Amino acid sequence: MSIAQTLKHYTCHDLTGRLKDLLRDVGLDRAPLPVAKLAPLDQFHSGGLSATIELANELRLVAEDRVLDIGSGLGGPSRYIAATYGCAVEGIDLSPSFVEAANFLSERTALSQRVRYTCADALSVPFDPGSFDVIWTQHVAMNIADRAAFYSEAFRLLRPGGRFAMFDVVESSNEPLHYPVPWARESRSSFPITAEATRELLGNRGFQITSWSDRTEASLAWFAEREKSRAYDSNVQALGLRFVMGPDFPHMVKTLVKNLREGRAAIVQAIAQKP
Description:
- This protein is an alpha/beta fold.
- It has a single domain, classed as Rossmann fold (3-Layer(aba) Sandwich), CATH 3.40.50.150.
- Helices cover about 45% and strands about 20% of the residues.
- The chain has helices at about 1-10, 15-25, 40, 50-60, 75-85, 95-110, 145-155, 195-205, 215-230, 235-240, 240-245, 250-260; strands at about 65-70, 90-95, 115-120, 130-140, 160-170, 210-215, 265-275.
- Strands 3-2-1-4-5-7-6 form a 7-stranded mixed beta sheet, sandwiched between helices.
- The longest helix has 15 residues, at about 215-230.
- The radius of gyration is 17 Å and the shape is globular.
- It starts with a helix and ends with a strand.
């Protein structure tokens, strides 16, 4: 049930066709399209492009790293990694509309030789054990009910010494979350757990945590700054995630911010290594 609900939440009719029209309307219909220009649209997580840059810097990526982006969405983080570091990146996502759009945007940014997207379930990824040097996830785990199976699959896919990078929302109090939020319109399709439970599950799966930081305040500052930028940049408004997620998306974001401010939720960034 949860997979069907999640897929429905992230399904957008004729997304690729609408993206073509949108890029033409905002004057971005010439190739190659700079990766940074798409950030308001394809960096689908708190902190946007700045959070992606920070996590990538923490990983110290090199061109030889093979990266798997789980829950790749429209592909913003994976295209940033490929363009900046020269890595080969595979992206998987449940949503066929997101996968099609991500591949289209990779063609438009001249990155289709380095980045590829396919439909797949994060609990059953169609790659051999030890296929990747890095597994990357940003705001993905909250949609996954069986977190233990998710971390076990990530462990299987990594080579020895490989790293699992995460940037996720966690529960931080006994008070329930307010809904809707960007990843779920109701609680039955939302599965955040506490930071403590996350660390325990990663350890139980065999991971060794090498870095861990709370990014809640930084994310709140980013949300505030983003609201200011929307007031004067028409392209930011046009390219925003409301275009993908629907007219109620700004309300979802405000609800997430409310949860963060009230201490019901927090945002953590972490890297865990496979021995």
